[in-house]
Amino acid sequence: MDTLALERAKQRIAEAAAGRPEPAAIEAALERSRAQIEALAVTAAELEVSIPEHVSAAVRDGVRAEVLPVARHIAEIRGLLNQAIRRLERVEGDLLAERHARVDDLALLVDLVSSGWRGVDERLERLESTRRDAVEPGDIVEPAVEPLGHADVPEREQLQHAAAA
Question: What are the extents of the domains in the chain?
Answer without folding.
Answer: 19-133
